[in-house]
């Protein structure tokens, strides 16, 4: 089988993680080109490196693209790539604005090409098993969680968009509906040596359940998502040795890296010419909910 040629746009911290994940999919997949303004990138890959993403698009070296640039650039790059006939795997959040998210959705529909958003926890075997367990233990009564780490906020994405995108996407996957009310508030602004941080409390009200989260520059690194159902408590803890527990009892889960799972599924969709519009709609709804929450913080 001829390897699927993936181009990478953006070679920052997460872009370099994607390089390793793509390499793990060899020989079915290979990294064929990279667009990066970082002079060190050429030493990290064995493929052509272009200084600008438009140069990569025009080179004709790729069958599909992986986009790991700042979220404010996602819409322009993704729509342009679709216009060139290239499916796109894009880092979360899809965009920072609802109109841009809708433009990507419209371009995907018009071209018939796959667009997959890397809400990476949705590809975790532990979280996917949580969805099965919640169906058995439901109905859902409350969802809660904590996610973050010490340190100043990112320059290119606020706490809501950086951390909240994961939790909102997971909530939508669990509830299979949009919340009727969204609220957020800045709970704390801790100071760090590298700048100011923020801790945001986010609440989503669904028809039969409330979801509440504490996100951002927390005193310790956390990624915990728990679902209380009539039939028990199901907890996904990505940083624990036991990533999934039911009523405090660990559940055995297959060992697989979520990013590798996501990229592998994206490559299958590209080869099959198959779109997952339900997943893209979830990504668009995630942008909408975060935009509503952000508006409440102003």
Automatic annotation (TrEMBL):
Residue ranges of domain Gfo/Idh/MocA-like oxidoreductase N-terminal in the record: 5-119
GO MF term set: nucleotide binding
InterPro entries: Gfo/Idh/MocA-like_OxRdtase_N, Gfo/Idh/MocA_Oxidoreductases, NAD(P)-bd_dom_sf
SUPFAM superfamilies according to UniProt: Glyceraldehyde-3-phosphate dehydrogenase-like, C-terminal domain (SSF55347), NAD(P)-binding Rossmann-fold domains (SSF51735)
Matching Pfam families: GFO_IDH_MocA
Protein name: Dehydrogenases and related proteins
Record organism: Magnetospirillum gryphiswaldense
């Amino acid at each position: 089988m001829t390897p699927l040629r993936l181009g990478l746009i953006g070679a920052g911290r997460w872009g370099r993680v994607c390089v390793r994940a793509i390499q793990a999919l060899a020989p079915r997949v290979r990294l064929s080109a990279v667009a990066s303004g970082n002079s060190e990138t050429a030493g990290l890959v064995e493929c052509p490196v272009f200084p600008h993403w438009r140069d990569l698009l025009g080179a004709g070296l790729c069958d599909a693209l992986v986009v790991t640039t700042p979220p404010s650039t996602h819409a322009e790059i993704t729509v342009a790539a679709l216009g060139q006939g290239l499916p796109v795997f894009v880092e979360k959040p899809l965009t920072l604005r609802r109109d841009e998210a809708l433009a990507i959705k419209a371009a995907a529909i018009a071209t018939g090409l796959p667009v997959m958003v890397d809400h990476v926890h949705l590809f975790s075997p532990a979280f996917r098993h949580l969805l099965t367990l919640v169906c058995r233990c439901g109905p859902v009564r409350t969802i809660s969680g904590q996610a973050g780490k010490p340190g100043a906020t990112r320059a290119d994405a606020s706490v809501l968009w950086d951390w909240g995108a994961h939790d909102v996407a997971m909530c939508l996957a669990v509830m299979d509906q949009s919340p009727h009310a969204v609220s957020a508030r800045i709970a704390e602004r801790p100071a760090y040596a590298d700048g100011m941080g923020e801790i945001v409390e986010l609440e989503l009200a669904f028809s039969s359940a409330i979801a509440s989260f504490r996100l951002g520059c927390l005193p310790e690194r956390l990624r915990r998502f728990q679902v209380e159902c009539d039939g028990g408590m199901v907890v996904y803890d990505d940083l624990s040795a036991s990533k999934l527990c039911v009523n405090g009892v660990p559940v055995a889960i297959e060992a697989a890296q979520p990013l590798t799972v996501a990229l592998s599924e994206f490559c299958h969709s590209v080869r099959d010419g198959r779109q997952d519009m339900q997943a893209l709609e979830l990504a668009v709804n995630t942008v909408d909910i975060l935009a509503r929450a952000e508006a409440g913080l102003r």
